[in-house]
Design a protein that fits this description.
Layout lengths: L5 H5 L7 E3 L2 E7 L3 H18 L4 E4 L4 E5 L9 H16 L3 E2 L9 E5 L2 H13 L5 E2 L2 E2 L9 E5 L11 E5 L5 H10 L3 E4 L6 E5 L5 E5 L6
Parallel strand pairs: 6-9, 10-13
Antiparallel strand pairs: 1-2, 2-4, 2-5, 3-4, 7-8, 8-9, 11-12, 12-13
Helix pairs in contact: 2-3, 4-5
């Protein structure tokens, strides 16, 4: 199936949906968990009938949905059709969309040596140094945002810096720290462990592996 351009998506009349980072996303303000579950159940039936399935997040006040044709890595008519179907289901159930709400968080790191830092960030963010796809560190399970490694010229002092707090379960933290160090990182400060341990990649960019232990 051919992919759709951004302009084609924008002209599709999907008032409830927004194209973001290669996906179609919508939030429906259900107002209660029961109403949200009712919407998700109806969407599930429609998705099964279409053999095309959205990613769904059900919370107390709303339901978030994301559509993409994974087999082609882009948006297709299947996504548009299912988006229309889902909007119809929501309307039938008296559930309104919040078109301004959909948001995608992606992280960007300025680096002159992707090969040196990518395994570290894959390990500290996902626990697996192999979760690198080209210029991106990706989490197949969707727990953390995508990290884009933006190429730059080498420089002594990074022009862009960021600090990340990566919260994990206490029993996961030691393995996560070990994976990060094996992937080319180093422990900068463990004086506050197990509350948090400061790690750095080969260029000095830092992240804290955090747990709930030893906190006020």
């Amino acid at each position: 199936m051919s992919t759709l351009s951004t302009q084609e998506i924008l002209q599709a009349g999907l008032d409830d949906w927004r194209p973001l980072a290669g996906t179609l996303r919508a939030r429906f303000a259900t107002g209660s968990f029961v109403a949200g579950l009712r919407l998700v159940e109806a969407v599930t039936e429609a998705a099964e009938a279409a053999n095309h399935h959205p990613d769904v997040t059900l919370t107390y006040p709303h339901v978030d949905l994301s559509l993409v044709s994974h087999d082609v890595g882009a948006l297709t008519e299947r996504d548009v059709d299912l988006a229309r179907t889902i909007s119809g289901i929501a309307a039938d159930q008296g559930v309104s969309a919040d078109p301004a709400a959909p948001t995608v968080l992606e992280l960007a790191l300025d680096t002159a040596d992707r090969e040196a830092v990518a395994p570290f960030w894959a390990a500290v963010l996902t626990g697996d140094a192999g979760n690198v796809d080209g210029d991106d560190v990706v989490d197949p399970s969707g727990r953390v945002p995508l990290l884009w490694l933006q190429g730059t010229q080498a420089h002594e002092e990074p022009r862009q810096r960021f600090h990340l707090d990566v919260w994990v379960a206490p029993d996961v933290a030691p393995a996560r720290i070990t994976a990060a160090t094996k992937a080319g990182g180093q422990v900068v400060d463990d004086s506050h462990a197990p509350s948090f341990t400061v790690l750095a990649d080969a260029e000095g960019n830092k992240a804290c592996v955090c747990t709930v232990l030893d906190r006020a």
